[in-house]
Amino acid sequence: MLIGELSRRSGVHAHQLRYYEAQGLLEPGRGASGYREYTADAILTVTQIRKLLEAGLSTQEIGFMLPCATGAAPDLEPCPELLDTLRARLHGLDERIDTLTRSRQALHDYIEATERRVSRHYPGCDSVTPGSTSG
């Protein structure tokens, strides 16, 4: 099938399919006319790629893991270093979540402290907008 049909059947834009090819995730053949030709298996591969992207994996990580993928879910066979790759990605996500949680708490603290100052400096005002003047 040509890229347009794969796009229609997989629900993925043709430019994304070309990107997956550039990343080594899809390997179409070339017809006599030079057009990309995909096998029916490409639909499953694109589904697997999309699901792994949704899990936050990079295309480089997916390229490493794709040979271990079976089914649309995909299920991952215990290939060498597969669990190390997944655990490393999870560890990175946990670190980012911790950083975001600390940032969120710091912003809450700044808001609360500023709101206390507003109520002390501007009695009767629930909020003051930047640039506003009283009186």
UniProtKB/TrEMBL annotation:
Which InterPro entries does the UniProt entry name for this protein? DNA-bd_dom_put_sf, MerR-type_HTH_dom, MerR_fam
**UniProtKB keywords:** DNA-binding
Which residue ranges does the record assign to the HTH merR-type domain? 1-68
Matching entries from Gene3D superfamilies are given as: 1.10.1660.10
List each coiled-coil range: none
Q: What is this protein called?
A: MerR family transcriptional regulator
